[in-house]
Here is the input.
Amino acid sequence: MKKFLNLPDEFVTESVTGFVQAHPALVTMHRSPLFVRRRTAKRKGVAVISGGGSGHEPLDLGFVGVGMLDAACPGALFTAPTPGQIVAAAQQVARDDGVVLIVKNYAGDLKAFELARDMLDMPVQWVLVDDDVSGFAAHLGAGRRGVAGTVIVEKIVGAAAERGLPLDTCKRLGDRANQATATMGVALTACAVPGVAATFEIGADQIEMGVGLHGEPGVSRVPFMAADAIVDALLEPIVADLQLAAGQGVLLVVNGLGGTPLAELYLLQAAARAALGRRGVEVRRVAVGNFATALETAGASLTVCVLDDELLDLWDAPVRTATWRW
Amino acid sequence: MKKFLNLPDEFVTESVTGFVQAHPALVTMHRSPLFVRRRTAKRKGVAVISGGGSGHEPLDLGFVGVGMLDAACPGALFTAPTPGQIVAAAQQVARDDGVVLIVKNYAGDLKAFELARDMLDMPVQWVLVDDDVSGFAAHLGAGRRGVAGTVIVEKIVGAAAERGLPLDTCKRLGDRANQATATMGVALTACAVPGVAATFEIGADQIEMGVGLHGEPGVSRVPFMAADAIVDALLEPIVADLQLAAGQGVLLVVNGLGGTPLAELYLLQAAARAALGRRGVEVRRVAVGNFATALETAGASLTVCVLDDELLDLWDAPVRTATWRW
Here is the structure.
């Protein structure tokens, strides 16, 4: 797989360096251990930190800024950050009001954040993101994966913290956002970690339903279909999980996995909006783009979050990051 | 090539519909003939319109909004818009102060915009964008192609128009921005128009230098290289064209062609900044992302614009579009 890189081992550092150089007003970088934080730290209030393997950009770096994350800790490609990264980030950006750690439900991330939590000498709360409703590895007992819904949880918790809400409230809102959120993904192609072969093989007339963010095979391989049919298949487990019913208002996130053109994502948005509309569900807010990616995977995920008034208000709150500004 | 679409003939309309639905505060859509315009029209001043084939998203739709375009006219995939689209857009968004048409240098676009200009009963000026310095088809006499530099010209002219500058001044600034801008692209993969085979074949260890935005073969095929070497090769014709010299300050745009992960684009940004720095050229502003794409092509282009104070001031002027907000 051809990629723009120099040495594979230097990829993450060089990429994060480029990211920080490109957004000097927003973020700054700590090199060792590696983390990215807001250029101008909060004066008071709860800090919000996330992190995870690299290869999912803009997640999480692109969401560091006012109204969202105080710091992000990028691990190696598809590899959790070290506890040392998380501890160093928290010590630099968090204060007496404490820190919320937003953790995607993967074994490596859980382990790293657990160790970091135990090492931190400050009030710590924890929001676990597990929005994937594909049923992937359900029989293994590890629970659902955290995927694109992470950006919603980060936005909600970040907005709550920016308003000065206390630690327990930020945690409660994050948990509520996660519980209100469901995601289902599909891949048209696989991806490859530099220096490693493609993560799976897929035929020219097949698509992989239920993929996550690491190029892992999904839950079923089905024949290639029209976009409307793919959207129906993606929405089915989401609707079941959230028990979506007529009259509800939702936030819809159409997320590209990295290699899909924006024009196709917008087409999926129109299809998903129409399909939800046929169920009487109103799309009240929407975000379309590459937010939580899996390297160069061609594919997309649909995320639905059932918005109550409080979550809607926090979603709408101002944000100023590299990826989102409103 | 697997793509998220229903019927190929409906692709553009469905995608544009999804785009407009996703940005209701910014844009609205005229269905027949098809164009996208600002939701809230300028009260007075020069209108700025662009357009071109679809498949380059977010170009040009994503740049409709305050401080940039008043309207954009999307053609079919890789096909110029019709004169009727351009005329209808101008009649709806332009006033007595006239309109600047921003035209990429392709035969189809030129023809459509020329016909539209002749049909418009208002003052019209014209900025031709031809920033591609690859030497592609130079022997054919059609001149250089308009590629990612288009977004810079649209930003400069849009900012000038938003300030109420007169038509001739907007035109002059657009021409100056174009003359100060040079772009060179490279593809790692080809792309395919729906229903059509891939536009060219490329080996697993080859890259295509000097590609444009239509999946056309470039000017040379070379062995795959490290990112730093690719950046040097891309910058060489740019430096020569702009006669870049130590002490100059530039705007750098690192543009993804559609299928390249953001992390790689940021890595290219770091490499390009370092390479320019070694020549004594300072990167004063930067934009990194997918701005002018060629469907799902994996690849990137580097664009350098030599900023004088006036262009810098217009680049920094506020903008509020789907793609750029500052």
Chain B has eight helices and 14 strands. Chain B has a mean pLDDT of 96. Chain B touches chain A through 57 residues (CB under 8 Å). The two ends of chain B are 37 Å apart (CA to CA).
